């Protein structure tokens, strides 16, 4: 049986904490985009008023940028220090430049920010 060899892009799977932080970032960004009146229609799909969700942020914002930068749609093997941080930076730069969205830092330690999950973001 052949062993699957991973390239350097997929060297090590992110931790469950990093996965939760990624999903929390998508949730917080979705809330901020909705609060700013920047629904999916405004950013991507004219004609249909669709509020953002964590899943839609990941699918419609995160994945296309990740695919363009690293050639993959899977977040499972992204490296935190390099790849996740780079994707986050591009997202925040583009949303800030094109839509005036205020910078949201990437959650660095899920344990420290877990109380923020229920906080309403403006």
Q: How would you characterize this protein structure?
A:
This protein has 122 residues and is mainly α. Helix 1 crosses helix 3 (54-70) and helix 3 crosses helix 4 (80-99). The model is unreliable at 1-11 and 113-122 (pLDDT under 50). It has 5 helices and no strands.
The N- and C-terminal alpha carbons lie at a distance of 53 Å
Number of helices: 5
Strand content: under 5%
Look at the structure and give the mean pLDDT: 78
Series of H and E elements: HHHHH
Q: What class would the helix/strand composition place it in? A: mainly alpha
Uncertain segments: 1-11, 113-122
Largest sheet: none
Radius of gyration: 15 Å
Characterize the overall form. globular
